[in-house]
Design brief:
412 residues; globular; alpha+beta; 3 domains; Jelly Rolls; binds heme C
Length: 412
Amino acid sequence: MTISTVRLTVVSALIVAGIAVAIQPGEAHKAITSKYTYNDDVFPILRDRCASCHVAGGVAPMSLMTYDDAFPWAESIRAELVAAHMPPWNADAGYGEIARAHTLSPKELDVILTWATGGNPRGSLDQKLPVVELKNEWKLGAPDLALKLPAEFTLAADKMEDWQEFTLATGTTDTRWVRAVDLLPGTPSIVRSATIVVKSAAGPAAGGGPAPEHVLALWLPGQEPAPHDGVAFKLPGGAQLGVRIHYKKTWQFEGKALTDRSTVGVYFSQNPDTGTHELLSLPIESAAAAAGADHVVRFSQTLGEDVQALALSPDNVPGNISMQVEAVKPDGSRVPMIRLNTRADWDRRYWFERPVTLPRGTRVEVTANLEDPDMLSAAFTSTPGAAAAQARPSSMRLTLNVIPAPPKPTAP
Ligand code: HEC
């Protein structure tokens, strides 16, 4: 991209910001009313909360790591934060207990909004901020198994996004226990998300849908892989991994071809024999065409065993819907699990703050609101053929990751 396009874009961003500010009564002059400055207050928050993507070479369209990078985007930052679009995190706070939420604290939000709407002061002029660079490295250290994708993939000049599926041989001969899986992008600016599964030898599921998959990881830029003590996924000897990558360009690279070759990193449990629990995947699936006239889809599943739920992921749901998951125990008590506003690009596995004990007979209830009637027909007209993988699904599926519940203590 030429310098003049950069300027033009920044200038138009400024014009848009200017108009937005001008129509707000009392803000016609950009007086500096913010007591918070970029250098002292805003930068540390952006560095901690946004730099995994908003850094030179990152997956986001612009860096926010210097004052000059950030201030033209002040109005856009305000809008994205108020809409809860950034940082990307789809779960509602206050419903269920989700660990490691990627959200801003009320204080952080206040600092950034005050700065964004209060004249965007820079702070002291002689202050030197540290240079923030993209961290493209293994977050858990070198993996036990580093599997480079078998081939390069080129996101063509005339395409903004594409999906690509790869198969990786693990080369293992006996059963291994996987405690975490990570991905190291070859070209971080276009690797938007990845799903890494154990390839199933079984054919399509009854009913014709795709076979339920054993998802090892839903990868997103900057996300810490979440190893848990004493739990691991089982990887059968000789298993193959399936890797689905969503490649997406930002406007900076419009018209350019970009090539990637990422590496998948697998971390094995060190002492698999001493009490490691197998992390199982329990699909909770809707039937096709399950939506009522109110655009609400309800489905549920009753558990046949005592389990402890550790995590939940929407692995086959349309984007831009809201969805709520609740467990109804045999005694009638209700346990809120998660409420989500799904966005196609940002699916992840949500780990519960602590294991949720669900006795046998518990009904896991899902309520999904499709909101847009067009999405309804699109979502529930099954599209046969390869295109269906990227199209809206004909049924919805969440996956609960569970371990068997510990045996009940026997009376002394
Ligand atoms: C996981 C990566 C990621 C993180 C973390 C993240 N962003 Fe973003 N952001 C993106 C991407 C990618 C886009 C481009 C829009 C899209 O494709 O969703 C974007 C878009 C934006 C935009 C709109 C840009 C435009 O084109 O109008 C703003 C503003 C923004 N982000 C601010 C932030 C702020 C502030 C934070 C931290 C509090 C943050 N983002 C954290 C990835 C991220």
